[in-house]
Amino acid sequence: MHIVLLGDSIFDNAPYVRRGETVHHHLQHALGTSATATLVAVDGETTVGIRAQLERVPANATHLGLNIGGNDALGHVADMAQPAQSVNHALMLLREIQREFARRHDTALQAVVARGLPVLVCTIYDAVPDLPPHLVTALSLFNDVITRGALRYGLDLLDLRELMRDRQDYSPVSPIEPSEIGGRKIAGAVAHWLARQASCSANASTFGAGPGP
Questions:
Q1: 190-194: which pairs have CB atoms within 8 A and are 24 or more residues apart?
Q2: SS3 157
Q3: Nearest to 17 by CA among 212, 145, 175
Q4: How many whole angstroms separate alpha carbon 14 and alpha carbon 12?
Q5: Is the separation of the CB atoms in 37 and 191 below 8 Å?
Q6: What confidence category does residue 208 fall into, taking pLDDT thresholds of 50, 70 and 90?
Q7: Hey, which residues does 79 pair with through a beta bridge?
Q8: N or C of the chain: less Cβ packing under 10 Å?
């Protein structure tokens, strides 16, 4: 098995942890010799960069992990600070932001799905230390798009909102990035998904086996 990690700094978190404590490092350690993990995710990437990342996916890849959308959300922080005439007006503005993200995210998902490989899609975590409550609410708009997209294409979903709930999960270098502890959690969840994939494949092979003619 060979999983390729696509997306942003949630996978590519080397600048925010000590050497040997990245998500990629923890994942390869968890997999041991049973599988290979390749990192093509790029710190700071948005949905529009996924097509370029897919061009670097090795030909022998068997699984894909996708973690994207957080930087798209960050790009709209200033927009969310704009005054609104009413609550309804604010919701209309947020809806336009969500629709734009949905279009870009769907384009990225289509390109990923076209590879014909099992895909694990991650949501955006929202327990970042000291994140203002209104931004936590805003992130739900982006996560709604991500969740619906995974369901639409029949992809597996890793909800980082439930996994990354503690302050220690976030890097002291930059609180929006995974720490060594958080990275280990993410890697463990991805490794668990791969193990389930391998088990399902083995069971399917056993079920399909039978005596020859």
A1: 190/3, 190/5, 190/27, 190/65, 190/120, 190/158, 191/27, 191/30, 191/31, 193/120, 193/156, 193/158, 194/1, 194/3, 194/31, 194/35, 194/63
A2: strand
A3: 175
A4: 6
A5: no
A6: very low
A7: none
A8: C
What are the CA-CA distances from residue 24 to residues 13, 28, 62, 107, 118 (Å)?
8, 6, 17, 26, 19
In the chain the domains, ranked by start, together with CATH numbers, are 2-206 (3.40.50.1110)
Please determine, for residue 170, whether its predicted confidence score (pLDDT) is greater than 90.
yes
pLDDT computed for residue 12 by the predictor:
97
pTM for the predicted model, two decimal places: 0.89
Instruction: Give me the sign of the Cα torsion angle 5, 6, 7, 8.
Output: positive
* Percentage of residues in the chain having pLDDT higher than 90: 78
Q: What is the pLDDT of residue 81?
A: 73
